[in-house]
Automatic annotation (TrEMBL):
<feature type="compositionally biased region" description="Basic residues">
    <location>
        <begin position="33"/>
        <end position="43"/>
    </location>
</feature>
<feature type="compositionally biased region" description="Basic residues">
    <location>
        <begin position="55"/>
        <end position="67"/>
    </location>
</feature>
<protein>
    <submittedName>
        <fullName>Phage virion morphogenesis protein</fullName>
    </submittedName>
</protein>
<dbReference type="InterPro" id="IPR006522">
    <property type="entry name" value="Phage_virion_morphogenesis"/>
</dbReference>
<dbReference type="Pfam" id="PF05069">
    <property type="entry name" value="Phage_tail_S"/>
</dbReference>
<feature type="region of interest" description="Disordered">
    <location>
        <begin position="31"/>
        <end position="68"/>
    </location>
</feature>
Length: 149
């Protein structure tokens, strides 16, 4: 049992006593902050535990010339694909559309075909979404600030 269990139970009671609009505003604020922290972490190419993402597989020396290799997940972390939602019952940070499959393959280290007729490739796990200790403290700060108002 956690030492903070009584505190967390009391906090859950305070949040439940908020109006639905107040809970929704709190959830939206948390979702926005969490999305920003996830975007920063993906940009720095780190897993939630602080380790670096697994490196890309080396390409053959005679690959296509003139091709620019960008950092991993540069477009995936944009607001177009990474959405933050908040409602009465919780806050959600998720990938939308067709990129959900790409994110899922990298999150869990699954097999996927990079091209329609290509061979299946097993990708190493790169945790795109996850909680860090900083995220937990940010959420606690948001809740206490919101309850103080």
């Amino acid at each position: 049992m956690s030492d903070f269990k009584p505190f967390e139970d009391k906090l859950a009671g305070l949040i439940a006593s908020l109006s639905p609009a107040g809970r929704r505003r709190l959830a939206v604020d948390m979702a926005k902050k969490l999305r920003q922290s996830q975007q920063r972490r993906i940009k720095s190419q780190q897993n939630p535990d602080g380790t670096a993402f697994a490196q890309r597989k080396r390409q053959p020396a005679r690959a296509k010339s003139g091709r620019v290799r960008r950092e991993m997940f540069a477009k995936l972390r944009t607001g177009r694909f990474m959405k933050a939602r908040g409602g009465d019952d919780g806050a959600v940070v998720e990938f939308t559309g067709k990129v959900q499959r790409i994110a899922q393959v990298h999150q869990y280290g699954l097999k996927d075909k990079p091209a329609r007729n290509g061979a299946a490739v097993e990708y190493p796990a790169r945790e795109l979404l996850g909680f860090t200790e900083d995220d937990r403290s940010v959420v606690e700060t948001i809740i206490t600030d919101h309850l103080a108002l």
